[in-house]
Specification:
Mean pLDDT: 94
Oligomer: single chain
Low-confidence stretches: none
CATH architecture: Irregular
Helix content: 25-40%
Keywords: Ribonucleoprotein, Ribosomal protein
Radius of gyration: 15 Å
Structural class: alpha+beta
CATH class: Few Secondary Structures
Number of domains: 1
Strand content: 5-15%
GO molecular function: structural constituent of ribosome
Largest sheet: 3 strands, antiparallel
Order of helices and strands: HEEHEH
Pfam families: Ribosomal_L35p
Biased composition (Basic residues): 1-14
Protein name: Large ribosomal subunit protein bL35
Distance between the termini: 18 Å
Length: 64
Amino acid sequence: MPKVKTHSGAKKRFSVTGSGKIKRRRSGKSHILTKMSKKRKLRLRHAGLCAPGDAKRVKKMLNI
């Protein structure tokens, strides 16, 4: 039986916290930032957590 490979895109975008939750980066912080308010950009800095339904799919891709 061959080795199970980790999904390359998922391993670059998600990380697992100590309690087993999936941490993700917020979208919309790569370009066209001039029209955004400072408050909105500050909020985008902080990482978010995946919803439980999405976390299940991501864990499958990360082989957790």
